[in-house]
UniProtKB/TrEMBL annotation:
<keyword id="KW-0799">Topoisomerase</keyword>
<dbReference type="InterPro" id="IPR023406">
    <property type="entry name" value="Topo_IA_AS"/>
</dbReference>
<dbReference type="InterPro" id="IPR013824">
    <property type="entry name" value="Topo_IA_cen_sub1"/>
</dbReference>
<dbReference type="InterPro" id="IPR003601">
    <property type="entry name" value="Topo_IA_2"/>
</dbReference>
<comment type="subunit">
    <text>Monomer.</text>
</comment>
<keyword id="KW-0479">Metal-binding</keyword>
<keyword id="KW-0413">Isomerase</keyword>
<dbReference type="InterPro" id="IPR000380">
    <property type="entry name" value="Topo_IA"/>
</dbReference>
<feature type="region of interest" description="Disordered">
    <location>
        <begin position="844"/>
        <end position="894"/>
    </location>
</feature>
<keyword id="KW-0862">Zinc</keyword>
<feature type="site" description="Interaction with DNA">
    <location>
        <position position="305"/>
    </location>
</feature>
<dbReference type="InterPro" id="IPR013497">
    <property type="entry name" value="Topo_IA_cen"/>
</dbReference>
<dbReference type="InterPro" id="IPR034149">
    <property type="entry name" value="TOPRIM_TopoI"/>
</dbReference>
<feature type="site" description="Interaction with DNA">
    <location>
        <position position="157"/>
    </location>
</feature>
<comment type="similarity">
    <text>Belongs to the type IA topoisomerase family.</text>
</comment>
<feature type="compositionally biased region" description="Basic residues">
    <location>
        <begin position="852"/>
        <end position="862"/>
    </location>
</feature>
<feature type="site" description="Interaction with DNA">
    <location>
        <position position="141"/>
    </location>
</feature>
């Protein structure tokens, strides 16, 4: 028996079918070891010695693998073919060696770019040893991320309250978003005018020509800058006679783009499918690991973490065959296309992302896939096919027109483009960020010397626009151009920025939150080198040299730590006043915008003599007056309401972290949005210091609702909860919607049902509320709220137990009624299979954990959140983790 170790149960299931009875394929569930979140896990004093720790799940996985290899003929490590996959294999080997579980059993490493029977069998015939250079590159990257996050994040917490974390790549990506926003704010629009003449040929055909010159001088887009100039040109053109000066038609070709890399796949899926990078990678993982196609489980795309754009010769020939069959021989180029990567620091060790079988057409497999899987597969298939198709043949025509008015000559130009042969455009056209394709239009036949009639002259006013905010796709593209991070980390970096509330997405664009601006300003002031684009890209180059066995990984760490530790040490003497002075200077244009009337934007609107300045409080930064405590004016950091009268301002008696939304029309009490220990919350009125006084009414914000999106009306609606949604069809008693400790819910008597992620507590209707309550009641008894029935997966043949996947307080979990096992973050509850669930439960049972509480026992479990138990009336304070422990947890995403 040969034991094969892969990462995931889905991959194990697929490969096990290919290899047969002589092999046992086991999943490690990703990494089995990690750096413990404590001081000393990476020790610079001991030449960066790293301490690894088996997680609970990791320990059970090692035990299962050790049990399987006992008496086995061979151990084959078949994790993914990249640096991370190499590291997982290394960790497994190290852990088994530490347990002395191998005892002379030979160990081999195999990799395959696609999970197909041919690829797997071929890989098994070509084993190798673990690539230590790839492992060293992983160790260096992991140590760097740990050292930056573990040492820099606590500095942020001490010197900049409200900041959550900093990261080696994360902070540089944030700087890109912040700098683009500052560029937008500094932008001054410029007026310009365009003049278009609609002209008619002798045959009665019309076309448009635009002004390009006058009096022998060229006129560019911004040269006509006032209405007066435009009116003068329009007046002359309305008196002019028109004639064709020249006609030039040139053939042109448009070539297809290469097949997808990780980065370009994320960009195009964002543009065309509206999928976030993290979602794209999650769906692509499923397509790679294997899906059921007509009773056969097979990986239908190649490995999705790659910088390469080339394809295997047999894949190219397969693509050319399908193109000829589906589109005709005219669409097949004479010579196969070869591509090379232009991105900085690209590693071309693997093929591009492509279908494993080009003949597997999207329309044929769509019925076997989930909708988002089908859409992503179609995108990959069409891009791959198009990359090997013939170029499109175009004809671009330019017509120059002269307008003569007296002695003055004015020049106009018309352009057109005609597709003579569509080529790859018959199948695919790449999306664009922030650009509009020129309209392809055909110009009517004409020749030099032909007279033209004027139909109308139009002049249009325009203003230049600022550069657009980054979309997730355009930010990924920019990071790749600069060589920042690696494609496999982009999705995690973007998600971390959103989770830390450093950026938000508005209309599919990334906009920095004030918290993100502060972090960027702090790092640029005191750690500027470590958020420089060139420095970060240079570090990536060094890590790539490590993976190529060109330099020692510890040497990279020594060079980095020498200067970084010195920079950290300098902040020990840093005073809060130094931080505030630096941030006031950097963020001044944002937090103290010019009022346009010549007055000092930093003059206090309340006392008139104090100067407004950035202050740091318990809950973060705010704006306060220099005359404090005599003047108590404060407002939130956001520049809105800077005049002291608009939204966000607070006058005498104001508080940091408090935004006044307005007054409640019913009571006349102020409605405020406040920063609290457990997050933002709404409050009606002010708290009284008198003993026994009634506390003001408060409401938390529903998950997903940004504080910046809360206005007075929405605040009043939340403060008015609970609200009656419907009457129960049997009892006639009210069904109420409300917010609780575990989120929004509906209630009927003693029955509570949590709302779904797509439900809005303020908008949920009667039918939906009744459905939730009735479903909950049908599963309950004795007046208790019903347990979440979950999604049945099937019966475990070995134990005879039925397995169900449910939503819990701490995330989705699977249970067989005896053991509960939490799903790893890499697995989706919606896509979980019976085989994966059995593996999770068995692993949990082997580790001796996951058993539900006995009857009568008092136990907090994830089932409580899913069952709809009555939310707790009071929040209990949770013990905060030690600063450095939390810092270590934030360092993993760059």
């Amino acid at each position: 028996m040969k034991v094969v170790v892969v990462e995931s149960p889905a991959k194990a299931k697929t490969i096990n079918k290919y290899l047969g009875r002589d092999y046992e394929v086991i999943a490690s569930f990703g990494h089995i070891r990690d750096l413990p979140p404590k001081d000393g896990s990476v020790d610079p004093e001991q030449d960066f010695h790293m301490v690894w720790e088996l997680a609970d799940r990791g320990a059970s996985r090692v035990s299962e693998i050790a049990k399987a290899v006992k008496g086995a003929d061979k151990l084959i490590l078949a994790t993914d073919p990249d640096r991370e996959g190499e590291a997982i294999s290394w960790h497994v080997l190290e852990a088994l060696t530490a347990r002395k579980a191998l005892k002379g059993i030979p160990v081999e490493r195999v990799t395959f770019n696609a999970i197909t029977k041919a690829s797997v069998e071929q890989a098994m015939r070509k084993p190798r040893e673990i690539d230590q250079a790839l492992v060293d590159a992983y160790l260096a990257r992991r140590a760097l991320d740990y050292l930056v996050g573990f040492n820099l994040s606590p500095v942020l917490w001490r010197k900049l309250p409200g900041a959550r974390s900093a990261g080696r790549v994360q902070s540089v990506a944030l700087r890109l978003v912040v700098e683009r926003e500052m560029e937008i704010e500094r932008f001054k629009p410029r007026e310009y005018w365009t003049l278009i003449a609609t002209l008619t040929t002798a045959d009665g055909a019309t076309f448009e020509a635009r002004l390009v010159g006058a009096d022998g001088k060229r006129i560019q887009r911004l040269d006509v800058g006032t209405g007066e100039e435009a009116a003068a040109f329009k007046r002359d053109l309305e008196l002019a006679t028109f004639q064709v000066a020249s006609v030039e038609a040139k053939p042109a070709k448009r070539h297809p783009q290469p097949p997808f890399t990780t980065s370009t796949l994320q960009q195009e899926a964002s543009r065309k499918l509206g999928m976030a990078p993290a979602q794209t990678m999650r769906v692509a993982q499923r397509l790679y690991e294997g899906v059921d196609i007509g009773g056969e489980t097979v990986g239908i795309i190649t490995y999705m973490r790659t910088d390469g754009v080339d394809m295997a010769p047999e894949a190219i020939q397969d693509a050319r065959r399908v193109i000829g069959k589906e589109f005709g021989d005219r669409y097949v180029p004479d010579v196969p296309r070869k591509y090379s990567v232009k991105a900085k620091n690209a590693q071309e060790a693997h093929e591009a992302v492509r279908p494993t079988d080009m003949g597997r057409l999207p329309k044929a497999v769509a019925r076997h896939l989930e909708p988002e899987q089908a859409r992503l597969y179609e995108l990959i298939w069409t891009r791959t096919m198009a990359s090997q198709m013939e170029s499109a043949e175009l004809e671009r025509t330019t017509v120059d027109v002269t307008a003569q008015v007296g002695p003055r000559r004015i020049d106009l130009r018309a352009t057109g483009q005609v597709v003579k042969f569509d080529g790859f455009l018959a199948l695919y056209q790449e999306g664009k960020d922030d650009e509009e394709d020129e309209e392809s239009r055909r110009l009517p036949p004409m020749k030099a010397g032909d007279p033209l009639d004027r139909e109308r002259i139009s002049s249009t006013q325009h203003f230049t626009e600022p550069p657009p905010r980054y979309s997730e796709a355009s930010l990924v593209k920019r990071m790749e151009e600069l060589g920042i991070g690696r494609p496999s980390t982009y999705a995690a970096v973007l998600q971390t920025l959103r989770d830390r509330e450093y950026v938000k997405i508005e209309k599919k664009r990334l906009q920095p939150e004030d918290k993100g601006r502060l972090v960027t300003g702090f790092l640029e002031s005191f750690f500027r080198r470590y958020v420089e684009y060139d420095f970060t890209a240079g570090l990536e180059e060094q890590l790539d040299r490590v993976s190529n066995a060109e330099i020692d990984w510890r040497a990279v760490l020594r060079d980095f730590w020498r200067d970084f530790s010195a920079a950290i040490g300098e902040t020990k003497e840093l005073r809060v006043t130094d931080v505030l002075e630096a941030l006031n200077g950097l963020l001044g244009p944002h937090i103290f915008p010019d009022k346009g009337d010549g007055s000092n934007p930093r003059t206090c609107p309340t006392c008139g003599s104090g100067q407004l300045s950035l202050k740091l409080g318990k809950f973060g930064a705010f704006i306060g007056c220099s005359n404090y405590p005599e003047c108590k004016y404060t407002r939130q950091l956001s520049a809105s309401g800077v005049d002291g009268e608009g939204e966000g301002s607070s006058a005498e008696g104001g508080q940091p972290g408090v935004r006044v939304l307005g007054d409640d029309p019913a009571t006349g009490l102020p409605v405020t949005l406040r920063d609290g220990r457990f997050g933002p919350f709404l409050q009606l009125g002010e708290a009284s210091a008198e003993k026994g006084a009634e506390k003001p009414k408060r409401s938390s914000l529903p998950k997903g609702l940004s504080p910046s999106d809360v206005d007075l009306n929405k605040a009043l609606a939340l403060l008015a909860l609970p609200r009656e949604v419907a009457r129960h069809p049997e009892t006639g008693e009210p069904i109420l919607a409300n917010l609780g400790r575990f989120g929004p819910y509906v209630q009927h008597g003693k029955t509570y049902a949590n709302l779904g992620k797509d439900d809005d507590v303020l908008e949920i209707g009667a039918n939906r509320a009744i459905d939730l309550i009735v479903a909950k009641e049908q599963g309950g008894g004795r007046g208790r709220p019903a347990a979440d029935p979950g999604r049945p997966l099937g019966k475990d043949e070995a134990s005879g137990r039925d397995l169900v996947v449910k939503a819990g307080k701490y995330g989705p979990y699977v249970t067989d009624g005896e053991v509960n096992a939490t799903l790893p973050k890499t697995m989706s509850a919606e896509a979980l299979t019976l085989e994966e669930a059995v593996a999770l439960v068995n692993a949990k049972r082997a580790a001796g954990g996951g058993k539900p509480a006995k009857r009568g026992a008092v136990r907090k479990s994830s089932a409580r959140a899913s069952s709809g138990d009555k939310p707790a009336a009071k929040k209990t304070a949770t013990k905060k983790p030690a600063a450095k422990k939390a810092a270590a947890k934030t360092s993993g995403a760059g």
